Automatic annotation (TrEMBL):
Alphabetically ordered keywords of this record: Cell inner membrane, Cell membrane, Membrane, Transmembrane, Transmembrane helix, Transport
Compartment annotation: Cell inner membrane
This protein's name: Serine transporter
InterPro entries: Amino_acid_transport_2 (IPR018227)
Protein topology in the membrane: Multi-pass membrane protein
Any one GO BP annotation for this protein: amino acid transmembrane transport
Source organism: Paludibacterium purpuratum
Cellular-component GO terms for this entry: plasma membrane
Keyword Transmembrane: yes
Residues spanning the membrane: 29-47, 53-71, 104-124, 144-161, 168-188, 208-232, 252-272, 299-317, 351-370, 376-394, 406-427
């Protein structure tokens, strides 16, 4: 690819960031960002998006690229606004907002990941339970022991060899993507017009449905956990051109993920009826597990649940590492790094025990996965990804050059909509 020029609006001036020619480094990061976003969240998006009917789904299709790209671009700019090259997100927050804010962001970061970890614990248990009862035609296993064994197995894998886990999960994501596209193509022969029969909804119902769907959309395309490392990597390679190059890589990655996910979503929605989607939600299983139960052909019945298990296992292991690091950081901030080093073994055991017991407990209780996304995952991600960078543009001198850009309004609006979902759930409206 030829040399690319990224034009960035810088207040009243326009600064041109001339990036170097495209390299394998850039390609690997496009795939890395793509792989991070395409995970278990993709498996629940068709259910929530399709339940609202075709019209909200079409609006979500229009919003998907700009909201995902602009929000992650804002976080990239925020991380690269530090006066100290190589600073991660916690260090940048501490520099711009103070040490106390740095601790709060670390806490928020931990609580961004923990609910997602709970979500995968529930989803994995339900996937195996559904596979046993439908594909194997066996009696359902007792939930508490099943959740115990699955959680223990996954945490034991992490404890045994973290580097191998990361490497293997990275390999697995690409077959997952190809299988996802293959299933979407396979489902085209089952497309029907059931989703089109609802007619045009009233303005109130349309707005209400779209509002409740936004948090799931935010979650499905979220790849913010890797943005800090991604931004620092571009800074190390491209120096002052890092912002322009990072935005370019991010743009191509988002284009890929939106195209793949939306094709999969539309294929699922057109192959199923609204009643099917409602049943999948009530059963608290992923769309792949439901497809495996509905279509009794060997390809769908056996491959779909297996792919769902791999996707959620991959995401579970990655988020477990992040949750453990976040909790370790919180403890270090409270008692000091030196004491943490002296008591490292006991602290690590305590962290593992806490995460195991909490994940097992939530997986046993079996709360609604989509409700967790609506009320916890989506809103907290929105606070970190959408609201914080926009707040920084108004308050941090190094970020003011990005003020007065039209995209800022969309990012702020989407973030506010996603965060308002938690108030809706808490107030029981």
């Amino acid at each position: 690819m030829s040399s690319t020029t990224e034009v960035i609006q810088d207040g009243s001036a326009v600064r041109t960031a001339a990036a170097q020619g495209w390299s394998s480094h850039d390609t690997s990061w496009v795939l890395g960002l793509f792989a991070t976003a395409i995970g278990a969240g993709t498996l629940f998006l068709p259910i929530n998006a399709g339940l609202g009917g075709i019209w909200p789904l079409l609006v979500m299709t229009v919003l998907a690229f700009p909201m995902t790209y602009l929000a992650h671009r804002g976080l990239i700019r925020f991380i690269l606004s530090s006066s100290k090259p190589g600073s991660d997100i916690t260090e940048v927050v501490g520099e711009h907002f103070g040490a106390t804010a740095g601790k709060l962001i670390t806490l928020l970061y931990f609580f961004t990941i923990l609910p997602i970890l709970f979500l995968y614990g529930v989803g994995l248990t339900n996937t195996v339970e559904s596979f046993v009862t439908h594909q194997l035609a066996m009696q359902a296993l007792p939930r508490a022991p099943l959740a115990f064994v699955l959680t223990a197995m996954l945490i034991a894998i992490v404890a045994s060899s973290e580097q191998m886990v990361v490497r293997v999960m990275g390999w697995l994501v690409y077959p997952f993507i190809f299988v996802l596209l293959g299933l979407a193509l396979y489902l085209t022969k089952s497309w029907n017009g059931a989703v089109l029969q609802g007619g045009v909804p009233s303005a109130g119902k349309f707005s209400y449905t779209l509002w409740l769907s936004i948090p799931v959309l935010v979650f499905a395309f979220n790849h913010s956990p890797v943005i800090s490392r991604f931004a620092v990597a571009q800074q190390e390679r491209y120096g002052k051109q890092a912002v322009g190059k990072a935005q370019q890589i991010e743009k191509y990655a988002v284009m890929m993920m939106v195209a793949v996910v939306l094709f999969f979503v539309f294929s699922c929605v057109f192959a199923l009826s609204p009643a099917d989607l409602a049943l999948a939600k009530s059963q608290n299983i992923s769309i792949l597990s439901y497809l495996g139960n509905k279509f009794q052909t060997p390809v769908i019945a056996w491959v779909a649940p297996a792919v769902a298990f791999v996707a959620m296992s991959k995401s579970f292991l990655g988020h477990y590492l992040g949750a453990r690091e976040g909790l370790h950081g919180l403890i270090s901030q409270q008692i000091g790094a030196e004491k943490v080093d002296r008591q490292a073994k006991n602290i690590n055991r305590g962290i593992m025990a806490f995460l195991f017991l909490s994940i097992w407990g939530v997986a046993t209780v079996n709360p609604s996965i989509l409700d967790m996304i609506d009320s916890l995952c989506g809103p907290i991600i929105a606070a970190m990804l959408f609201i914080m960078p926009m707040y920084a543009i108004r308050k941090v001198p190094a970020m003011r050059k990005y003020a007065n850009q039209p995209g800022n309004v969309l990012v702020t609006f989407i973030g506010a909509v996603a965060m308002s979902a938690i108030l809706y759930k808490l107030l029981g409206l």
